[in-house]
Amino acid sequence: MTNSAPSHLLPVFARADLAFERGEGAWLISTSGERYLDFTSGVAVNALGHCHPHMVAALQEQATKLWHMSNLFKSPDGERLAARLCEQSFADYVFFANSGAEAMECALKVVRHYHFSKGHPERSRIITFEGAFHGRTLGTLAATGAAKYLEGYGTPLDGFDQVPLGDIEAAKKAIGPNTAGILIEPLQGEGGVRAPSNAFFGALRDLCDEHGILLVFDEVQTGMGRTGELFAYQRIGVTPDVMSLAKALGGGFPIGACLVSAEAAEGMAPGSHGSTFGGNPLAIAAAGAVLDVMLKPGFFDHVKKMSLLLKQKLASSVDRFPGVLSEVRGEGLLIGLKAVVPAGDLVAALRDARLLSVGAGDNVVRFLPPLIVTEAEIEEAVQRLELACIALSPERKQGAA
């Protein structure tokens, strides 16, 4: 499948030697005609699978009407989508962006501007947590705080204080007169499918209320049904003041959103933030179609049912292959398999078995099937996982030696 022609794409991705030409539900068909079961979903993006008929129809209809008109003018469809998101969440306002990193940049600016508008411009620092991943812009990289992402880009943007995940005493000690807010993922995806207890999130909410600072949830990966509720904060039972969304919001079409409570939005006025493409009519149509499907009765019941089935079957695989797998983690259909072998080796072996997965921190491999995945597809995925485990098992390697 290797193409000998030189690539003119900036070489910032370690791409597998594999290309796809079309998709159907939970399946991708390669340029050589092979079918792959897609448990990557574009890294939690294709929540409704590939080419969902309702999404296709919505985009086709919108493509004949209007593609772009800028935010200089009113957007009736954007207003409707924002109202639906607010109706389903804590928020009173929505800012539409183009990606998760942009949604997070808006969240960071909202937090800082909130205190500025109240006469406290010195309150600009935000507490974040080890293992986080918040995006690839200079601002969100600084919030992420991981050296491997920051290396080579100069002095990181100031204003972030990182503490260990789940350590409430460290979070308390990090709060000072310049603290503006606390930023956390309800469930770390890139960081290894890790989450502290619900009680920890409740303690963070109490800290924010006590000190007059804002709580921000990064739901770029966990939002839009991935953990079994429309938003992960609803499962945890702790409400943030600001929340970022992207990935599954557009079901494959690029769109991000920053959801903000009325209190947190104080001070945001014309000129305080903006975007050329944010709220693009095509993106709005795609996100509206995603909500149409997800808000139908029974949708999240299906996600929870498939989650339980997948976790049970994966736990059985862990028991069968202790030399390859050690633990099942996660919520909903954001599932992590902690590996004994190098996670990259497991991802490659799964790919050889025509099952697509994605690595994460802490030697974890993520399973991120579309939320419309069926029982039969989960059964098929586990069978392919076990083929990969057999190929990687120490006993087989010793026999081959």
Concise summary:
The chain is of the alpha/beta class and about 400 residues long. The protein has 14 helices and 15 strands.
Architecture overview:
This protein has 401 residues and is α/β, with parallel strands linked by helices. It folds into two domains: 20-51 and 297-400, Aspartate Aminotransferase, domain 1 (Alpha-Beta Complex); 54-294, Aspartate Aminotransferase, domain 2. 38% of the residues lie in helices and 17% in strands. The protein is built from 14 helices and 15 strands. The strands form three sheets. Strands 4-10-9-8-7-5-6 form a seven-stranded mixed β-sheet, with helices on both faces. A four-stranded mixed β-sheet has the order 1-2-3-13. Helix 2 (53-63) packs antiparallel against helix 10, helix 3 (76-87) runs parallel beside helix 10 (281-294) and helix 11 runs parallel beside helix 13 (375-392). The chain is globular. It starts with 19 loop residues before the first strand and ends with a helix. The model has no long low-confidence stretch (mean pLDDT 95).
